[in-house]
Amino acid sequence: xxxxxxxxxxxxxxxxxxxxxxxxxxxxxxxxxxxxxxxxxxxxxxxxxxxxxxxxxxxxxxxxxxxxxxxxxxxxxxxxxxxxxxxxxxxxxxxxxxxxxxxxxxxxxxxxxxxxxxxxxxxxxxxxxxxxxxxxxxxxxxxxxxxxxxxxxxxxxxxxxxxxxxxxxxxxxxxxxxxxxxxxxxxxxxxxxxxxxxxxxxxxxxxxxxxxxxxxxxxxxxxxxxxxxxxxxxxxxxxxxxxxxx
Length: 246
Known about the structure:
Blueprint: H1 2-5, H2 23-29, H3 32-43, H4 53-71, H5 75-100, H6 110-132, H7 136-146, H8 167-182, H9 186-189, H10 226-245
């Protein structure tokens, strides 16, 4: 907002990345300015996909490994980049196989998109473990815990009393996941009103390569109405109060 007041229009950087239905789609939505930088200054100079399929996969892996190193000089970051490079290679190979055998002509079903979103989500989460871990030992310990190899511990209440069933915890998880996967983001809410961020249509492409629609999903578009004024003003007031207090 401050940048726009000075005439600086910032580019869109995140576009609901966890709604991605494949890893290529994820990188079109996640840290989009970094993705463009890696593409323009690493992937393309290395040859991109202009020097054969084999070289393309090598260029993808090299670009992602260097992208991981950009985040920090640690083997965990490098492995995170290599893991995403492998994901991208598998994704491109799968898409090539679909075209080769004619399966790309079939429109994706709702169940197929949902399954693809879950698989992509899980793959990204596994990679995040290595991104945040201090060492490979820590990362493997976290992954083992996530997979239930160390046993399963039920949610614990505020009183630190283990409960076999905590319905509230599961309800909150379901609500949060529904918001992540189904609710429109800020750009979609303000799609009809020229949002502050630069809404480049060529950056908002879905997994099929088509441009994202202008209108927001579920009809949840911002309007100059009292219905929108009250909740936005309330949330804004709470945030300002929290800033003042803390």
